[in-house]
Amino acid sequence: MNKEYICKQIKNITIDDVDEEMNKLIQIGNDAYTMSSRCRTGNNVVDYFTFLQRLETKGKYDINFFEFIEKIEEFKQKKFIQTMLTYYKDVKNKNNKKNEYIVLKEVYNICISAINIMRPLNCMEIYSKYKSKRVLNFCAGWGGSAVAAAALNLEVHYGIEINIDLEKSYDKMVSYLKTFSGTLFDIRFCDAATFDYSEFVYDTVFSSPPYYFIEKYKNNVKYYSKKDMNEKFYIPAFTKAYNGLQTDGYFIINICKEVYDNILQNIFGEAHEIFPLKKSKRQNEHTEMIYVWKKTNNVPFLL
């Protein structure tokens, strides 16, 4: 299977497209809050570098998009998938404007899992709102936070990412971003739960950690229960990242309410601010929240 070919069939993004969007992000700057939730400016910058690895992420049925293609005849036996394919053939794509890979990707998104990115515009809006200069994303993911930091020309963007398959993609992305920005990038490929955060100096944490078992990223630690994930990932990662934050800095997390209720509130108390993540309803219907704490002293929380 030629994965790069398939990616091109779904998203044929050129370097000119990337340059155009990067320049638009820079022009938007601190006005990202004025942009519509449907605005996708900047997403192509992310996808140009990391789209292939995103398609390797497993969703429901423990299968990624490439595996879905390989096993499509088997999946056609599932009534809801066959129904959706028939709907595309007879209705939504009856004029054949979308190629087979785009159709299969859209069906995968609807029936299996939509592996979404954190939009650069979301990150830019947060960084501007809290006047961030040195930011940390301890689940760096597909790179939206790095693109946002470059667009705003922040002092430093720190990233921690456990998926080592993204290392080459990040090297290329960072090299590209440096042609537009003076932002210093320090990306480490390791486990956020065990990292020594004293190596970084940051005034803002903004991260969107994976939710319980919804998406299975490559090279992640395997957790056997929610309790196991709480104890081995959420609690140590949240606590250590917060403890390393500068006093008067902001700890900002986009996570499901279950993790907020059961983990974050127990560690840090009720969030100082709670507001919805700005996103298109096309991504999914449920509202995702952002939880914010301002660090007012340097007393560490104990694990």
Helix content: 40-55%
Main beta-sheet strand count, sense and barrel state:
7 strands, mixed
Q: Structural class of the helices, strands and pairings?
A: alpha/beta
The backbone outline, from C-alpha atoms, is globular
Mean pLDDT: 93
Tally the beta strands. 7
CATH class of the largest domain: Alpha Beta
First-residue to last-residue Cα separation? 45 Å
CATH topology-level fold name of the largest domain: Rossmann fold
Characterise this structure.
There is one protein chain. The chain has a seven-stranded mixed β-sheet, sandwiched between helices. It has helices spanning 3-10, 15-28, 43-55, 65-70, 72-75, 79-92, 100-111, 120-129, 144-151, 167-177, 226-243, 257-268, and strands at residues 134-137, 156-161, 184-189, 204-207, 250-255, 273-276, 289-294. The model has no long low-confidence stretch (mean pLDDT 93). Helix 2 (15-28) crosses helix 3 (43-55), helix 2 (15-28) packs across helix 9 (144-151) and helix 6 crosses helix 7. Strand 4, helix 11 (226-243) and strand 5 (250-255) form a beta-alpha-beta unit. The radius of gyration is 20 Å and the shape is globular. The protein starts with a helix and ends in a 9-residue tail after the last strand. It has two domains: 13-41 and 116-294, Rossmann fold (3-Layer(aba) Sandwich), CATH 3.40.50.150; 58-111, no CATH class. The chain is α/β, with parallel strands linked by helices and 303 residues long. The chain is built from twelve helices and seven strands.
Index terms:
single chain, 303 residues, alpha/beta, Rossmann fold
